[in-house]
Design a protein that fits this description.
The structure is a single chain. The protein is mainly β and 202 residues long. 0% of the residues lie in helices and 28% in strands. It has a 3-stranded antiparallel β-sheet with strand order 6-5-8, with no helix packed on it. Strands 15-14-17 form a 3-stranded antiparallel β-sheet, with no helix packed on it. It has a two-stranded antiparallel ribbon with strand order 1-2.
């Protein structure tokens, strides 16, 4: 763990190692470190830092994972490219990751994506990281934020013009010229009127 000459020796430093009774130090492979240790004595002390893969303990180089991917948050003596997992909001494999897309989500260090419930979207967002990003679009009701499906309101009814994580059928209000409740709406009839998104007739 030391190097020098003529008995004047200093620590080899991070990313290097040396055996006993040896004046020279040897660098770990490209990109590898010794995890902050400065007196390492063997190549087995070499590790690939978080976000890199390779067989550092055999003197190999460490290669950075691809874009939008990383490794578990710890150094490792030997990691392969399959240990590069996708960032939150991305999916793929072996460090090749792309956005999950509208209507999907994924957590960090997960290669797979999960679909929102039927009819639900993520409001146009393409890198959502949790189910609570799922919403029911205008005109639909359901508990999308809990993974539930979104069901379209009945004929001649709609919801307020905004997406929602959680809406019930009672949020389905009648169209202009119709009256009723819970998305079951019929024409107001002769001599009556109603505005949009109002269940009562006048």
């Amino acid at each position: 763990g030391y190097h020098g000459s003529s008995g004047s020796c200093s620590a080899v430093g991070d990313g290097y190692y040396s055996a006993a009774l040896t004046n020279a130090r040897t660098p770990c492979g490209s990109g590898a470190t010794t995890g902050g240790a400065t007196t390492s004595d063997a190549v087995a002390d070499c590790t690939c830092p978080t976000g890199y893969y390779g067989d550092a303990s055999a003197g190999g180089a460490c290669t950075q994972c691809g874009g939008n991917s990383a490794t578990a948050a710890s150094d490792s003596n030997a990691r392969s490219i399959t240990d590069c997992l996708c960032d939150a909001g991305y999916h793929g494999s072996s460090g090749s990751c792309s956005a999950v897309g509208d209507g999907y989500y994924s957590a960090a260090l997960t290669n797979a994506r999960t679909a929102c419930g039927s009819g639900a979207t993520t409001g146009g967002a393409t890198t959502s990281d949790a189910v609570d990003d799922c919403t029911c679009p205008t005109g639909y009701h359901g508990t999308a934020s809990a993974g539930g499906d979104c069901t379209q309101c009945g004929a001649n009814s709609a919801t307020a013009a905004s997406d929602s994580n959680s809406r019930t059928i009672t949020d389905c209000l009648c169209d202009a010229g119709y009256h009723g409740s819970s998305g079951s709406c019929s024409a107001v009839g002769d001599g009556y009127y109603s505005a949009a998104l109002v269940n009562a007739r006048t």
